Hints:
206 residues, Rossmann fold, five-stranded parallel beta sheet
Amino acid sequence: xxxxxxxxxxxxxxxxxxxxxxxxxxxxxxxxxxxxxxxxxxxxxxxxxxxxxxxxxxxxxxxxxxxxxxxxxxxxxxxxxxxxxxxxxxxxxxxxxxxxxxxxxxxxxxxxxxxxxxxxxxxxxxxxxxxxxxxxxxxxxxxxxxxxxxxxxxxxxxxxxxxxxxxxxxxxxxxxxxxxxxxxxxxxxxxxxxxxxxxxxxxxxx
Length: 206
Ligand code: TYD
């Protein structure tokens, strides 16, 4: 199915909300419907993304919060240049699991100004057509994180995630949809599909 232009859809939220599962299901659904879909995630698997993943698993070490913020920006610049912008130009639907709102929320929770992070990113990163912020109870998030992993990364301490979540709550804009992530996966998925149908101008939902 051909689209009139490319569309960028981002999924955001604290860890353990089911965001990545939802992103995968949405990508599968849109592909099965016949749309050209590119599925991305940040941090990426590129050089900067790998540095970030090392911090996530081994701790920050002597990397300062300023440097860490810069790693995320560098990683995203690469992602925009190599993946996001070309796919949008080719008229594809780009589904991205985390984007610059994560930087605003997570690095914002370290003391940086979230609005300034958003402004700095929007200089080079296209604003999403649709931004899903999936929020649920932190208790449920932690149950999911515990079920899925052996250990907690340095970014998953509860008081930190409380702060991250509060910052996600402050974001505003017509492109933002706040989604309750607590209901069963399929129910949440239906809500996302409805929103995508509206965005793409499709009348029927399957
Ligand atoms: P993610 O890949 O969603 O984690 P996982 O797949 O292991 O669940 O993201 C890794 C972590 O990076 C997550 O805790 C959020 C954090 N993060 C930031 O702090 N800033 C950012 O800009 C991004 C994209 C992620």
